[in-house]
Amino acid sequence: MDIYQLVRKNIQQLSPYSCARDEFKGEASIYLDANESPYNAPYNRYPDPLQVEVKKEIAKLKKIDPKQIFLGNGSDEPIDLIYRVFCEPRQDSVLAISPTYGMYKVCADINNIAYYTVSLNDHFDITADTILAATTTETKVIWLCSPNNPTGNSLNSSEIELLLQRFKGIVVVDEAYIDFSSQPSFVQKLHRYPQLVVLQTFSKAWGSAAVRLGMAFASETIVQLLNRIKYPYNVNLLTQNYILKRIKQADTIQQQIKQTLTERRILIEKLATLSVVQHIYPTDANFVLVKVEDANGLYQSLVDKGTIVRNRNSVQLCQGCLRITVGTSQENETLIQQIIELTQ
Ligand SMILES: *Cc1c(COP(=O)(O)O)cnc(C)c1O
Description:
344 residues
């Protein structure tokens, strides 16, 4: 499959900005090339535009070639860049599942790209057939999210793979919650599918949402295209240094993930005993979608007690649902007690 054929004409023809750090890449003792201040080291210097050190560590962690890694200011950055590489405004379109993460649509709207959806089935899942049936010759990108936000479940991986075999465009699998999942990552399938993009992030299991680092794993061709159009210094030095330190704490993070999974189990058990709870959907993530008697009312009463959950009542297929993030044992217990006080 020729990825270049999918690329917008103006991006194919683009000569990217060549920054000082691109033109000289070695080590030197005097840098007078970038109009930086000579004071306030190390913050006076522009950061590595391609984040070589960070990618080296992520490559080890994910068992992948560093050339297949793109890093952005959160995963929201590659989401936007994928539109800008592949989708011609007012001409091309994308297809996403519904319900799912809101940023795919927001970025489509900003870029003036038609955004179509296929409703998930009763199990919040997909089939390759229904997705393919909704594609047209203008469909450039299919957005999948697994485990999916806000439903929490993983999508059927064989159906995703069928889609990868049959759809001749870009397929994105957003794995923001993969560290909490029992399913294997699609990163392992990258060598088979040049049009696959897998998104992951340091914002969830890695406990670093404030730091803003998102990852896109893809074929070298796609990574090069994303690099071509990104802002030169899109990941700042503080973020790069912080993440290098954080990766060294991988064992602690594994412990925290385990703890969250234990707390998730306990939270679900306790929610199941509450009379207001009508259904708890299966989850592979660090949150749980719960159907309750009066979602708007319960949401507001919890706000009044100082506890904020996500009200998903107005979202397709999620009528009556609250999305509850798994917190500490204490936080979860307080939530349960508050719901009991409000509803008994
Ligand atoms: C939280 C989340 C992200 C993370 O976005 P960042 O910009 O990396 O913080 C991405 N995708 C989904 C589905 C999410 O829920």
